[in-house]
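User: Show me a protein chain along with its predicted structure.
Assistant: Here is one chain, sequence first, then structure tokens.
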Amino acid sequence: MGIAGLWDRYRDQSGQWQDSYTMLTINADEDPLFRDYHQAGKEKRMVVILPEGAYRDWLAAPAEQSRDFLRPFPSDMLVARPVN
């Protein structure tokens, strides 16, 4: 499974290289699966799951086309199981 994300490498104040990573999320208030997660009354979020075969497209996309990837992954293709 591929998740859309961003990364950056920068020098901190001491001159050391630091790597920074983040996974992109979108609103999931209406998603049949993810709307049941997070606290009641709070905005629901889900990571941007990339369809199989789109990983290279995400990595090569110019910034102006990146927004095209920010859509919910079909919930019927995911499985949620309780953790004991």
